[in-house]
Amino acid sequence: MRIARKSAPAVSVPTASMGDIAFLLTIFFILTTNFVRERNIQLKDPMSRDIKPLKEPQVFVSVDKLGNIWLQGQMTSPEALESQVKSLTAAKNDKRVKLRVDKDLPQEKYGPVFLALSRAGVEIALVGTEKKSGFFE
Amino acid sequence: MALKRSRQTEAEINVASFSDIAFLLIIFFILTTQFVKPAGNNMSIPSGSTDPSKKQEKYLTINLSAEKILWDGKDEMSLDDLRRRLLQENLKEKPPEQRVIILDAGRDVAYQRYFEVVTAIANADGVLALIEHEEKQAGGAASPSSAGGEEARP
User: Fold this and answer.
1) Which residue of chain B is at minimal alpha-carbon distance from A64?
2) Which of A29, B5, B135, B152 has an alpha carbon within 20 to 30 A of B100's alpha carbon?
3) A122 in reach of chain B (CB within 8 A)
4) CB distance A61 to A85 below 8 Å
5) What is the pLDDT of residues B84-114, one digit of tens each?
6) Closest CA to B38 of A58, A78, A31, A8
7) How many CB pairs under 8 A join A and B?
8) Looking at residues B109-131, what average pLDDT do you find?
C-alpha cells in the first residue's frame, strides 16, 4: 500500500509590517533628532567634577586643538567674534553661547575668546565632561 | 472578424523598496543624531570698567599657573584645597560684589586646568572676573593688566 507522504508546511516569516515599523521609527527620529553640528571640529572636551547637565544653547563657539575659532561651524577670528556673536544673539531670547575649547590649548589661545564673549554681553555655557571621582582615581 | 481585446494591465506601485528606504533613513538618523547631553557650567561675564589697582585691593585673586594655584597671591594649594576653601568662604550668602574672584591665569595654562578652576568657582557661586594679559611687546615681558570687571555669574 502506498502511503501518502505529508507535505511539509511552508514556513514563512511575515514581513509585511516591517515597512510600517521602519517608517514609524523614521518619524520618531525625525522628530527627536538633534544634529551634531560640530562634527568636523577636532577637539577634546575638558573634564571636571563640578559640572551639571546644560540646556543646549542656540549659538555655539568652539576652539579646536589648533586654536582655530569656529562660530556656528564657520571659522572666524577673535577680533570679529564679538560683533558676530552680538548680531547672532540680538534677536534671540536665549543669550547663552555654548563654548567648547580643546583641553590642551594654552590660555593665550582661549583667553581672547573669553574676553570677546564677555564684551558681547552673553552668558557662556562652558562645556565639558564629568570627571568621576572614583575608586581608581 | 473577432478582434482580440488587449488585456488591461494592472497598475501597481512597487512598494517593496519602501522599507529599505525607511531603514536607510533610520541608519542616517542614528548616525547623525546627538545622544550625548552637554554638561558644564553657565557663566555670564558682563564686561566692565578697567581699574586694576582698585580690583587688586578689593577682590580676592586666584593666580593660576601650569604648576600651582595661589590663593590671594600667597597660599599655594591644590585643586581640592581650592574647592574646600571656596566652600568655606560661603559665597552663596554674600552679596554679588563680595563674591567676585579675579582669576589671573598664565599664558601657558592648559584649558583643562583653567576649566576645573572656573567650574569650581562657579559651583561655589563665585562671581568670576578675568584678567587680560597685554600682547607681548618686542623686547619686553608680558604684564598683566585688568580688562575690567568681566564678572561671571554661575
Assistant:
1) B111
2) B135
3) yes
4) yes
5) 998 888 888 888 778 888 888 888 899 999 9
6) A58
7) 163
8) 87
**Is the whole model's pTM more than 0.90, yes or no?**
no
d(CA B40, CA A98) in angstroms, rounded, equals 9
- Contact check, Cβ <8 Å, B39/A114: no
Lookup: cell for A54: 546644560
Which domains are seen in chain B, by residue range?
52-135 (3.30.420)
All cell numbers assigned to B126: 563665585
**CB nearest to A50's CB, from B106, B110, B122:** B122
Instruction: Compute the average pLDDT of residues B129-152.
Output: 46
Binary contact (A128, B25; C-beta < 8 A) = no
| CA–centroid distance for B147 within its chain | 20
Q: And the C-alpha cell for A52?
A: 551639571
**A98/B38 CB distance under 8 A:** yes
CATH topology classification for A47-130: Nucleotidyltransferase; domain 5 (3.30.420)
ipTM value: 0.72
